[in-house]
Amino acid sequence: MRRGRPYNEQRLQLSACAGVTIELSTFGLGDSTYVRNSGNFTHAIVGEGGNITTEFARAVGYTTKAPLLKGPSTLRNCFTNGSLLTADTGENHRDLGVTPFIDVSDFISNTGVTIHSVATNFNGGTNLVRADSIYFLDEGLKLKGTAPAPIGAFGMDMNYNHAFLAGDPGTPIFGGTGNPNDRIAFSARPDGNIDVWDTFFYGLIGGIVVRDPITGPMRVARNRNNTRQWLFGVTVNGVVMVELPVITNPFPARPPWGPPIR
């Protein structure tokens, strides 16, 4: 680890005493590594994309709320060969905020597919990974649901005020306090439309039409007073900006059979 000002220090964070062997052929991180942070800056999600040499692309989550084990208490001394003639020493720091990496093969049936984009909501409780489908993951990257992701467009994001936990509806009808109109996500289509999804029921709410298909990143932002939101997307002709209307989320909707949802 090399840190600049004000630290001006170099430090080994993982010594041989940790007993960890790194195989560079499986290290990954190609020419398109996607990183997104939550709106409250406590979480992040990283996805491997582009040209990678590993067999499967991976997604990794991070939270600042978990402990960082560092300093003198992590100092270790050990012998690094069988004859007890060679020794090693160093601090073995452990950041408990890093999730175990999740192979794309763990939740994608077509293991040849790659990651195209990632997204996280305001508090890091819902995370999206877009590959052959859009995968809805919780804070620990456990799969909760999926939605279609047509080939040829990659951008996606969530309502700026989205603070729901994946797998939890979080709205008054279910005993929560959240507004269902905030529990939505946006994903670009190659035909120039933007799909709008419910992130708990994973159902399609509707669509937003833009002139040029969004072929690159897509982001949702708000004004200072949090009274309006805009969607920004990269197209072949430049950046498009769409002022988002208040989108009414119909879920949960009454099913066509059986008793009504209570």
Describe this structure in words.
This protein has 262 residues and is mostly beta strands. The protein has a single domain, classed as Methylamine Dehydrogenase, Chain H. The chain has no helices and 21 strands. It has a four-stranded antiparallel β-sheet with strand order 3-4-5-10, with no helix packed on it. The radius of gyration is 22 Å and the shape is elongated. It starts with a strand and ends in an 18-residue tail after the last strand. The mean pLDDT is 84.
Keywords:
Methylamine Dehydrogenase, Chain H, four-stranded antiparallel beta sheet, elongated, 262 residues, mainly beta
TL;DR of this structure?
With 262 residues, the protein is mainly β. Helix content is 0%, strand content 39%.
- Please provide the count of β strands: 21
Number of helices in the DSSP assignment: 0
Number of domains: 1
CATH C-level category: Mainly Beta
In helices, the fraction of residues equals: under 10%
Which spans of ≥5 residues are poorly predicted at pLDDT below 50?
none
Distance between the termini: 54 Å
What share of the residues does DSSP label as strand, in percent? 35-45%
- C-alpha geometry: elongated
- What would CATH call the architecture? 7 Propeller
